[in-house]
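Researcher: First entry.
Model:
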Amino acid sequence: MEDERKLNYMSTGYYIDYKYTLDLVRRINKAVEVTPVLANHFQCEGYNLLERFQAILWSDTKVWTMEKKVPDGKVTLSIKIKSAVTGLLLLAVSVISLTFFVFKRRDEVAVFTDDKTEGPFKNDTRLNAVYEALNAGRKRYLEVVHTVPRSLTFFNFFKRRRFVVYLEAVDFIYQPFIWIKSRKIRHLISQVDLSSFNANERIFVKNELEKLALGVPASMAKLKLFTWLMKCLRIKLCFSIDDTRHYSEFVEAGRRCKIPTFAIQHGHFTKYHTGWIKMSKLDGAIMKADYIVVWSEYWKNELKKLGSYFKDEDVIVGGAKGGVEKLLLRSGSAIVVPYEKDAPKESVKHFIDEVMRCGKYEIVFKARAGIEDLNCQLAEYNLMPEDVTVAVDDKEVLKKVALVAGTYSTYLYDCVEKGIPVAIIESEIDYGEGMVENGLASFIKMDNRICETIENCVNVSAAELGRREVLLRGEEDIRLSHTLSNLIEKYASD
């Protein structure tokens, strides 16, 4: 019954309207900018905090665009108690960790990371190169971890077997003070002219502006606390995943203390990655790392083209994330379709049906690692396990692949680096259009010539695949872990 419900839900043609979402984000920014009292609120102590919240604004707006409803805001007593207990536990762990670091003086490098432990050092795999470099150099490090408080948080803590400081413990400390300011914030929001929004949008916009405005004092409080901690711990160098929703106060505290801070690229950049692009016209400094380390010259150019607030000299080409397993022989007979969270699932399902109708290629569904129930991923695409071959491990995929086809994911870029033909499927979203425009992928138009189009995508020449790879990776064979090792040697040597 549950699977049937999911299939019925997904068959409604769910997808996120990115163009509309971006337009709504821009209109919300403008509403703040033309409201003096609210603009002044976001211009706090020399910072433009509206810019700091762009990634959160995008994320929240994207969810609302999909669901078109705003939570009623009612929190039950049991949830409040559970949140309080969890917050106290995170605070206790963080205080114990800090005490340990202060007295043991394990204070050379600070790392900001998401709460993931699938990597070789029980780390977030997206920061493998950071942990490889730190362990190779035998450097001691403190981890500041962003988590979603739940049982997995504590499972990861014991799996990691290291003391860490939780970002959410800091949030917990200041929550009562934020609540005190809520009445004043609601008064500010009441002065915003919402006439440019429709009735449905107004409810969301009002709630979102209140949330972001309440985030201003919280942000400044976190900044001051992190600044104090870094001074106490005598940190010499900061690394962070470039998660612009959560890393801002951590990296800005490092800059305040004149500690070199480096954000590490973890995914692709597009016009929809608002957290990396200058979106606000308000005055003030932007909370950001000193430098962002990207995988190649291609990504440095993309940031510049998209209008990033990182200056050209602040973008360092660090090199490939790791060794690339090249596809030496192209004899596969499978079209690989990766799971993509925000893809227009009905359009991708239509593509899969058309491939099956062509009759020449097997469909391999590349499931996303870290999501235990593979059937749920299939259900989102209205697929059953018997419809396709399911693979999680890249090695399984490489044995069969003739073409990888999707709508936007970072996985598509990874496949270009491996010398695999990649194509973007025509759909309702233009999230992956940059790959086609920049010459990294073919385009599959969903018309009556689709079988011929797929055949052409599969039979891309070796020379063309080599050109795509060099365009994405660059001419030089640079390794990210080597670049980071040099930074550690330069800034955190004994």
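Researcher: Second entry.
Model:
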Amino acid sequence: MKSYVLTLVGVTLLFSCQKQDFEENLNHETETNTEDHFMVNTLLLYMDNGADPGIEGVDYGCFDFQGYCAHPVVVTPVADVDKIDNVIDAVNAGVGIAQSFSDNEAELKKVIPEQFVSGVIDGRYTVENKGDFTLTSHAYLQFFDSGQNRIGVCPLRR
């Protein structure tokens, strides 16, 4: 019984320290990037343990904590899936990304916040993808500022 209580106390302390650090990071992030961020209080937290390619929802994804990950968007009824797929292909290849964003700007703005679309086009932001753009899984488009700080994540599914 004594070891159970000690374990419980240790776990409680661990999570309370992590929560404090997490809240401090959120407050700092909100103060320094408010004009280019989503509304932090309504978003999810993107986490990635680095497994490649990994399993969505286990090794990476957006989880129910405050952060900078938008709620998933199902593209099919909203935007042209083929155009979004072409953009994701360019992001995955790492070639012609800004041009692809520019060519498909109107469609992208239907599913991705305008500041990220225009930021990639004008070179203020870079974008990377993790995941697959299919009917059952998400492409997680991650946007980074010039300091390579992740500023937003947009999960998209067909």
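Model: Note on the second entry: The two ends are 51 Å apart (CA to CA).
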